[in-house]
Amino acid sequence: MGICVFCNTELNRENSSSEHIIHQALGGLLESENICCTSCNSTMGTSIDSDFTRIFAHITESFHIKTSRKKAKLNYYGTVKDRLGNEYKAKFKGIYLQSLFDKNTGEFIKNIKKSDVANYELISFDFEINEVCLKNGFQKIAFNYAVMKGISPEKLNLIFDYSKKEFIDENSTLIPFKPLNPFDSYLELNIPPTLMHTIILFNLKNQLYVFIDLFNTFQFYVHLSDNYEGTQISFHYCQILEKRFFEENKIKQSLKIRRFKDAHIISMQYGVELNKNDENLEQAIIRIEKESFEKIRKKGYVIDYYDWLYTKFNGYEYYEITSDLMFSKISPSTAWKYYFIPELENDEGDIVQYEEINKKTFRISTPISFDEQIAYPIALLNDTSQSVLSYRDLKIGRLINTLIEKRNEYQKNNYSG
């Protein structure tokens, strides 16, 4: 199984930890047992994970997000108003309004009973971002994904000190994303947001990067290495977050093991290992059924990112791509053709149908003219404008509006009598 990347302990079934690539508190489902031991995982959870995931409490508690394990409900704050229009600072726990405070002084006013919740309307969240915690969390996600994909921790020299077996705190390798062409601008700001997480790992010669998008809102490149020596790589992962409901009993019945032959077939079909540590056949059957069921559940949330992108643009023509926020002088036509692989052309040589999104260019590079392009992270580093801050504010604003709509809808349906 390999060794723990932090303490060099040889991993086995007893001490290996199932490490989430994206934090399970954020709905992350992708896991690996070949990164760290149980002890180091616990330490990282205390030092990095809790502060990072607390940033997103407003989001994770507002949506019905599928997680692989039960998680504790978190406290967070916002602003509500009563039916007379008076505004209060409000404390929430989980989905529920808990207490009211004076908006100006912060003085406690009262706790809220469930029967009184319908008298208050949520109007804003206190969304505060700790940039250090944000950096640490994104670097850990990037590190975990790269290691899971076979990149040696020793090669991740820009974020990980291999001799000390710890993350590097002195410098930030985070590069905030913003659209640099009409195609990306349209995708990010004109298409209704989908609650999802995305990761793309790629190299540009000896430079290794990971693009991470959490909640279709918080988007960064993480520069992992400047001495990558492997082959050309491009990996991606994408999952939908809002919990889907399906016929659990029907699926469980299809996984019911009645004979030893059934156990072998189901374990092979869903990649569940036959474990010699099972005390008896009954225990083995229960475990195989449970693990197979969880794999089916998770599979329903994982999607092919490029297929999803293609469906979002299917039926559009490049001249329809417009946006109120344009970061580039290149034409929509140039951006459109740069990110799609052509399938059919007419007699005049004009493209009349596109086959798929170009995985070699999307989020990796951006066109700056008809016949010239530049690596996306490098272009962002060279950008001296303040528009990246405006872009992040726009994305967070869109997300918060969606959160408020969902919370008020939930409150109306459950507490309006």
Report what the structure shows.
33% of the residues lie in helices and 23% in strands. By secondary structure, the protein is an alpha+beta fold. The chain has a five-stranded antiparallel sheet with strand order 6-5-4-3-7. Strands 10-13-12-11-14 form a five-stranded antiparallel sheet, with helices on both faces. α1 crosses α3 (131-148).
Low-confidence stretches: none
Alpha carbon gyration radius: 24 Å
> Widest sheet: strand order?
6-5-4-3-7
* Largest sheet features: 5 strands, antiparallel
C-alpha geometry? globular
H/E element order = EEHHEEEEEHEEEHEEEEHHHHHEEEEHH
Rounded to the nearest angstrom, the distance between the terminal CA atoms is: 55 Å
User: What's the helix count?
Assistant: 11
What's the topology here?
Layout: E1 19-20, E2 31-32, H1 38-54, H2 57-62, E3 75-82, E4 87-93, E5 96-101, E6 108-111, E7 120-125, H3 131-148, E8 160-161, E9 166-167, E10 174-176, H4 182-189, E11 196-204, E12 207-214, E13 218-225, E14 234-240, H5 248-254, H6 260-269, H7 281-299, H8 305-313, H9 332-339, E15 340-345, E16 351-357, E17 365-369, E18 372-375, H10 376-382, H11 387-415
Antiparallel strand pairs: 1-2, 3-4, 3-7, 4-5, 5-6, 8-9, 10-13, 11-12, 11-14, 12-13, 15-16, 17-18
Helix pairs in contact: 1-3
